[in-house]
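Please fill in the sequence for the structure shown.

STRUCTURE ENCODING:
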């Protein structure tokens, strides 16, 4: 992993993006006689073509973490709609910006660049899955957290393949890992790391105050050139989560991040206004049609105002398209949304699935009550309960809530305390590492969530 503006990005994913950007640029330049009448201004249209195509592939999930483990057939199925979307966007740009002479790429350009991108992905993904690039881990600890690190290392959450070569048991841990994967506890850690060619040691021990915690041996490993990482850093780096169950207050205090500078606040506010204004302009016909459909369905109010908790626990009224019956909470008690919730109307089912019900919240952004990207605001009734049941839950209120966020693009719709805990771990990562770069990535992922209706309920 490499870190760009506080956010962890896979080296392979970053290399793939740069490689494909160069391939698309070269394809556009090579085929310029087929689609550009004025080749004296060649490089601006070619660069526009490359950026639009990368954006199109990004919005359809082709740079997400699990793509390196996909079959080539799945890659082909994603490339085709990505290039169709890019084709449409390039023709739209040619109409909107005729002064820039962007031109309208023909089918031959897309066939050439599509074939080159497919070949590049085949080579990169084959190399990424090679055992030569496999990262070998030794995990110190054999408890529940060690088992979760094993599951993360074996999952398809990242571009880089991991292999856990074994666990070093520590006294006082309740064993939760396969006994066959235990390594000899009587050998020094540095000896084990060299014997098993470990690239990294991950420490999952929660109680570090007893004499069983191998502080001196871990120091020897670090001095011997074997990187040592604690579980919290491992999850933050590989899963974009700050795990509550392995979190120490000192990690938040001394771990960096939490940028609240004037520059960051100004950049974020400009991004909020520009992104919200653009969405309002583009989605105006959809919003008008939605309002009409809600009114026709049951004659009730189009909009729904609901009290939510914002930054520093301040209350505000969030504005949404009404997606439930008018008597959804006739007993006056807030309820979690359910799968196939009977309170949701027919129109509401679709606008929730496609996240159209969230569009009126642009007004909350313009008023400064919300950001475009941030933790989703929750109702005060649930916040009071969650703050009591989940440690560090209140940290998410350190910044403005958002219309979309990292938890919304990485996790399903939340409808329980357990879901709130899982989403909090993404929210904590965002609060700690938020930047314009991360906002843009979340915005691109949000387009995919809307297009495929992921997470709606």
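FILLED IN BY: designer on duty
SEQUENCE:
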């Amino acid at each position: 992993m490499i870190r760009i503006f506080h956010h962890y990005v896979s080296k392979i994913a970053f290399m793939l993006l740069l490689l494909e950007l160069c391939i698309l640029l070269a394809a556009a330049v090579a085929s310029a006689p087929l689609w550009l009448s004025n080749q004296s201004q060649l490089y601006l249209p070619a660069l526009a073509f490359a950026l639009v195509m990368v954006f199109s592939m990004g919005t359809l999930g082709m740079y997400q973490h699990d793509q390196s483990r996909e079959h080539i057939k799945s890659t082909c199925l994603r490339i085709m709609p990505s290039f169709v979307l890019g084709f449409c966007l390039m023709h739209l740009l040619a109409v909107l910006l005729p002064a820039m002479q962007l031109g309208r790429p023909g089918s031959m350009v897309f066939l050439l660049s599509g074939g080159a991108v497919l070949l590049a992905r085949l080579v990169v993904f084959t190399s990424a899955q090679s055992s030569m690039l496999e990262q070998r881990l030794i995990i110190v600890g054999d408890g529940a957290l060690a088992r979760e690190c094993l599951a993360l290392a074996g999952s398809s959450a990242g571009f880089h393949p991991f292999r856990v070569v074994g666990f070093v048991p520590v006294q006082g841990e309740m064993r939760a890992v396969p006994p066959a994967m235990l390594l000899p506890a009587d050998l020094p850690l540095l000896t084990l790391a060299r014997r098993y060619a470990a690239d990294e040691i991950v420490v999952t021990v929660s109680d570090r105050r007893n004499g069983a915690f191998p502080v001196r041996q871990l120091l020897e490993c670090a001095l011997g050139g074997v990187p040592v990482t604690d579980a919290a850093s491992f999850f933050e780096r590989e899963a974009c989560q700050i795990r509550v169950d392995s979190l120490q207050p000192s990690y938040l205090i001394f771990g960096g991040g939490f940028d609240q500078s004037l520059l960051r606040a100004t950049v974020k506010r400009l991004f909020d206004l520009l992104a919200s204004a653009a969405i309002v302009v583009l989605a105006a016909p959809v919003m008008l049609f939605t309002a009409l459909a809600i009114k026709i369905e049951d004659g009730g109010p189009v909009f729904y105002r609901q009290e939510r908790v914002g930054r520093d626990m301040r209350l505000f009224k969030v504005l949404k398209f009404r997606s439930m019956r008018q008597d959804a909470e006739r007993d006056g008690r807030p309820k979690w949304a359910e799968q196939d919730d009977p309170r949701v109307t027919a129109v509401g089912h679709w606008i929730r699935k496609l996240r159209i019900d969230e569009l009126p919240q642009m007004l909350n952004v313009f008023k400064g009550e919300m950001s475009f990207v941030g933790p989703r605001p929750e109702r005060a009734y649930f916040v009071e309960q969650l703050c009591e049941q989940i440690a560090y839950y209140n940290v998410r209120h350190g910044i403005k809530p958002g219309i979309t966020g990292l938890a919304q693009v990485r996790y399903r719709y939340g409808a329980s305390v357990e879901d709130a805990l899982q989403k909090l771990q993404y929210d904590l990562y965002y609060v700690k590492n938020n930047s314009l770069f991360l906002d843009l990535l979340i915005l691109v992922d949000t387009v995919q969530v809307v297009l495929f209706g992921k997470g709606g309920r």
